[in-house]
Amino acid sequence: FQGGDTCEYLLSSGRFLGEKVWQPHSCMMHKYKNSEAKNCLTDKHIVFIGDSRIRQLFYSFIKLINPQVKEEGNKHGNIPFEDKSSSIKVDFLWYPEVNGSMRQRIKSWTEGSVAKPHIIVVGAATWSIKIHNGSNEALAQYKINITSVAPLLEKLAKSSDVYWVLQDPVYEDMLSESRKMITNEKIDAYNEAAVRILNSSSRNSKAKVKVFSVSKLIAQETIMKSADGLHLPESSRDTNAMILMNVYCNKIMKPIDGSCCQPQPPLTLIQKMAFCFFTLSIIGYLIVSLIHRNNYRKNKSCTDLESGEEKKPSIGTPNVSTLEMLLHSFCKLGLIMTYFYLCDRANLFMKENKFYTHSSFFIPIVYILVLGVFYTENTKETKVLNREQTDEWKGWMQLVILIYHISGASTFLPVYMHIRVLVAAYLFQTGYGHFSYFWIKGDFGVYRVCQVLFRLNFLVVVLCIVMDRPYQFYYFVPLVTVWFMIIYATLAVWPQIVQKKANGNCLWHFGLLLKLICLLTCIYFLSYSQGTFEKIFSFWPLSKCFELNGNVYEWWFRWKLDRYVVFHGMLFAFIYLALQKRQMISEGKGDPLFSNRVSNVLLFISVVSFLIYSIWASSCKNKTECNELHPSVSVVQILAFVLIRNIPGYVRSVYSSFFAWFGKISLELFICQYHIWLAADTKGILVLIPGYPMFNVLVSTFIFVCVAHEISQITNDLAQIVVPKDNSTLLKRLLCIGGFFSGLHLFSAIQDQSRH
Q1: Could you count the other beta carbons within 10 Å of the beta carbon of residue 50?
Q2: Separation CA 58–CA 81 (nearest Å)
Q3: Which of 251, 269, 300, 432 is 20 to 30 A from 355, alpha carbon to alpha carbon?
């Protein structure tokens, strides 16, 4: 199902999501702010020509530029509007009938050197029906008049955007006696005549008057709320004005969440190079694979000439060479990236806006939680936050976050605040997991660092190249990458304090605590010194990684939002491992973590704390104020959950394999959703099967999960090849990677130069 001409769809078809949200067929509509509208329409002249209905559209349109405008002035006369700050001029010209006067006005713009309006919006018919009492002669005259006007509009359409607004239906029961002759049957006849004449006049011409017919669909749903049965309610007029703004401004402003009327972005130099690389990888893999399998067949069955017996070949498949594995991985990755590009960069598939309802969020949540319970199994070990448990935790959190994104639940503040805790919990696990590894293993080698950095960043780097997006756009990966490096630096700098050293002398524990206090102090200082933070990350090459829209404010905001939780994770790991070493906790199968009394008290406090946080988050009224408190209080619910999940022995001894499976690919799921499950860089929803929302979600979800799983496998395979254990080989690979990023930066600079 092709997206097709999204402008045509925007002007002619769509449906309501709920009562007030209009969804165009196949594309997404951007909600323009006053500043955006002014930027788009700077130095433009817009003219609305017609009757009282066009006047309504005129007022809704200029309120997008200046919301303070009041609907005043002569109702049956011309109304000027000017925004001097942006040099925008919008005029309403009162021509309630398509007649000689309207024709003369339009003709004046086609003659000589008269300045033509940039946008012309025309429409009229109801006055003709009313004045002539709905006679057939009036309809015949309307056809003659519009036939004389059509060539002039076509001529203007060569240099201006011209829109003919079809007549909206009326609510006949509410019409006054003087308007009873305006029936929907008559309106349909006038609309049909206008469309037929305008289409026939543009048949042999490249220029085309755009027919604004979507207003009819909107009116059919809302006209019963009209005050007089003729004029649309304000919300419907505003929707029409927003559609008009999208038709004209999307190709100029290129908003991410406004896919209607946006042309497909041209391929960049780096994207072309990536396409060539993946094509060569596919060809190379096919050649190597054919040669390898051909040699294998020759050697598979060989006859012993002396005994005449056939030797049995070794059981199994042919040995796969490193080159073949590398090419195979890039071959699969190339096909997957093609799918990514087609979904979110080519105008091939449809995209729709999100629309939040409580049922669209909470019903899937209940469904997946029930599924998770059905897949309960025993854990291999019963330690606190064991591997199966952390995978399960990541899995159910990721599924909840995915449902949150596709349902558009960010508009509902209580849900938003709880999702913020889930993101914080991921970072808590980052602090807990990496601290535990370095503390127990004492492995600060380059191999470990490179493995982690490669697994975290490989997919994002590829997407930055293929999808032409900055690194900071995938904000979570830069966040966990930076925090990993901070944890590494904190523990690796002199003196290196690890568990083995601390066991020999308890004073080392105080040394580690001192390191953690220094880390906390630095975090606190940077969180209240935006200028210093921005200076640090504005230095090249960090600026290339952390800038978004020309500055690092977004990066500072994301970092600040969960600034303490990684530290909390490190501190929790330190306390837990110290207690475990001194055998102050019991981690046997079925045993409570502490004595029964202590366990019951801690469990009660945890449940109460968990509920108190949820009540506070649900009662939030102001997102900014709640975000300010979030970094300090999110740890309350995280620790409460950890204790509830681990204190009872039975609960600690089981896990959901369903959630754990998703947890193993949680990073890939989080990143892939941007382009092949959601659309327009997460602002909308990908539509593979239009007209069947549930079936569409099932199909796109299945493909999305399979792709995420496959990318996880590819990343693991490539990590073994690209990051070898041998230090000398690893050093050579690092030099190659450095050269690759240097080349990428060079081509990026050339690309930016050509854009400007």
Answers
A1: 28
A2: 10
A3: 251
For residue range 733-745, list pLDDT tens digits in order: 999 999 999 999 8
Q: What CA–CA distance (Å, rounded) separates 186 from 184?
A: 5
- Helix-helix angle 666-676:446-466, to 10 degrees: 10
Overall pTM > 0.70:
yes
pLDDT in tens, 437-481: 999 999 999 999 999 999 999 999 999 999 999 999 999 999 999
Q: Which of 273, 243, 247 is nearest to 261 (CA)?
A: 247
Coil, helix or strand for 17?
Answer: strand
Which of 25, 60, 36 lies closest to 46, judged by CA? 60
Q: Which residues pair with 378 in a beta bridge?
A: 654
Q: Residue 532 is inside which H or E element, if any? A: helix 530-536
Is the pLDDT at 615 greater than 60? The verdict is yes
- Residue ranges of the alpha helices (H) in 408-529? 413-441, 446-466, 476-492, 499-504, 507-527
Residues contacting 361, CB < 8 A, separation 6+ = 403, 404, 407, 409, 412, 415
Residue 42's Cβ-side half-sphere holds a number of Cα atoms within 13 Å equal to 9
Inter-residue contact 152 to 80 (CB < 8 Å): no
Best CATH choice for the domain 6-253 from the list 3.40.50.1110, 3.30.70.1520, 3.20.20.450, 3.40.50.2300:
3.40.50.1110
Q: What six digits make up the tokens of 191? A: 């609309």
User: What pLDDT sits at residue 264?
Assistant: 84
Cα–Cα distance, 104 to 115 (Å, whole number): 15
Pairing of strands 45-50, 88-94: parallel
- For residue 335 the two structure tokens come to 């096909």
* Rounded Cα gap, residues 15 and 24, in angstroms: 6
- Which tokens in the block code for residue 607? 């449940």
Residue 38 has pLDDT above 70, yes or no: yes
What is the spatial distance between Cα 425 and Cα 666, in angstroms, rounded to a whole number? 13
- Residue predicted with more confidence, 631 or 259: 631
User: How far apart are alpha carbons 49 and 152 in whole angstroms?
Assistant: 14
3-state secondary structure of 261: coil
Buried-state track 183-205, b at ≥16 Cβ within 10 A, e below 16: beebbebbbebbeebbeebbeee
With tokens 């029409």, the residue in question is 240
Active-site residues, by number, are 52, 228, 231
Share of the chain above pLDDT 70, in %: 96
The span from the CA of 536 to the CA of 543, in Å, is 9
> What's the pLDDT score for residue 312?
46
Question: Residue 321: what pLDDT?
Answer: 82
Give per-residue pLDDT as tens, 648-665. Answer: 999 999 999 999 999 999
Output the CA torsion sign for 141, 147, 150, 151.
negative
**What's the farthest any 2 CA atoms get from each other in the chain?**
112
Q: How far apart are CA 29 and CA 751, in angstroms?
A: 29
- Is the separation of the CB atoms in 638 and 371 below 8 Å? no
b (16+ CB within 10 A) / e for 373-411: eeeeeebeebebbbbbbbbbbbbbbbbbbbbbbbbbbee
Residues in the chain: 756
Tens digits of residue pLDDT in 169-207: 999 999 999 999 999 999 999 999 999 999 886 665 556
Residue 299 in tokens? 């050697």
What letter does residue 231 receive in the DSSP assignment? S
Distance CA 580, CA 586 (A): 8
Whether residue 485 contacts residue 493, with contact meaning beta carbons closer than 8 Å, is answered with no
In sign, the C-alpha dihedral spanning 673, 676, 677, 678 is positive
For the stretch 528-563, pLDDT in tens is 999 999 999 988 888 888 998 888 999 999 999 999
